């Protein structure tokens, strides 16, 4: 009998050792059960040729509109959820739609953006808040991030419409920027102060950012 009990005990231990251990994660951790689907982080590189930044600035009696090109950027998604993004604009590419070289010259020199000293502007996402129940084609995220212009960084929040389809993503948004926050002022000689007062303190940026899923290295 003693021998049978010892044998039975050894057999039970052997069966226990050969049984796989399954851990079921709690609600605060990832699901580690066999077969559980875990969302993957995917990066989408910005297509600088398809993406656009359109600026508009108003003054007493008129306005100017033009374009700025992106030099690089990326979106980061976890599954279908946007989680991060960084974007760099090439300020040396600044143009004016009517081809007014005088206006472009002012904007690029120390009168306004001083692009020779500050050739890029950047935006880095710091917070993303999905908008619940957003209709198709309407803003579905409130985006907060750090906008850097002329070496000065300020936080800014705006609604954005983000559409993810397969390997492609498109985001559109309109930002209103206070130029005085970034020391963007008209400084041209004697008339600078007076001329600056007829320019509105804010200008707008209409964004269309197009990205494509990056290939694994």
Task: Please provide a written account of the structure.
The protein has helices at 2-18, 101-108, 192-197; strands at residues 41-46, 52-59, 62-78, 81-96, 120-130, 141-149, 152-165, 168-178, 199-213. It has 217 residues and is mainly β. The relative contact order is 0.16. Residues 6-30 have low confidence and may be disordered.
Would you kindly provide a brief summary of this structure?
By secondary structure, the chain is mainly beta.
| Helix-strand pattern | HEEEEHEEEEHE
What class, by secondary structure content?
A: mainly beta
The first-to-last residue Cα distance is 65 Å
Shape by Cα distribution: elongated
Question: How many beta-strand runs?
Answer: 9
* Main sheet overview: 9 strands, antiparallel
Q: Would you spell out the secondary-structure blueprint of this structure?
A:
Blueprint: H1 2-18, E1 41-46, E2 52-59, E3 62-78, E4 81-96, H2 101-108, E5 120-130, E6 141-149, E7 152-165, E8 168-178, H3 192-197, E9 199-213
Antiparallel strand pairs: 1-3, 1-9, 2-3, 2-9, 3-4, 4-5, 5-6, 6-7, 7-8, 8-9
Structural descriptors:
single chain, 14% helix, nine-stranded antiparallel sheet, mainly beta, 217 residues, elongated
